[in-house]
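hiii, so i know i said id send this last week but things got crazy w the move. better late than never?? heres the sequnce for the chain we talked about at the cafe, plus the structure i predicted for it. fair warning i was half asleep when i ran it
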Amino acid sequence: MNNDSLFHLLQLASPALPVGAYSYSEGLEALVELGKVTSPETLAQWLTQELRWGAVRLEAAVMIRAYEEVHGQDFDGVILWNGWLTAARDTEELRQQSLQMGRSLLKLLLDLHPELGHGYEPLQKEGCNFAIAYAIAATHYQIDLQAALLGYFYSWTANLVSAGVKLIPLGQTAGQRLLLTMQPALKQAAESVSTLKADDLSSCSWGLSLASMAHECQYSRLFRS
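okay and structure toks below
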């Protein structure tokens, strides 16, 4: 990957990307309050299981397919996968998170590159999932698909580690150590998702769904979901 593509990937995976990722904990806040996640070890276990079986695995698999559809200029295919991913959301909070982040990223991308607007009008009107907007950006910036996939997983993991640092709480050094220990799980997740066939697209994330529903009615909270 050339330096320009690397810079674009770093920008997409950066916590400074103005899509609001920092405001979401994806049920982690409820898990901390319930005493299910209380340490770096339990947080690492939760993240590893989500990477192996959870919703983020499904998002990444759809991101790959959207990337390929964008590359082939099949805009109808992109819109189809966007609707599929919206329908696969288990809870209202998780659906709203994905659509808000996707809308923000798509708007940012079109503000920076207005020429991309053609073909994506339905996404602007009906809503765009974050994984779809990420795929559009990665394709436009000519980021290698495998690198984009690793960046997607890393960004997700770093955001939830940051949430864990605030919620558990953890020290900053413990958070960075946890990110280092998660690297093998990130690589394994990318390898696994890359080989999934369409009929294998599934997730087992009932724990996330329950945590998300509990968070929706949590009395006091720092995060939006």
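btw Residues 37-200 form a domain with the Urease accessory protein UreF fold (CATH 1.10.4190.10). thought thatd interest u
miss u guys!!
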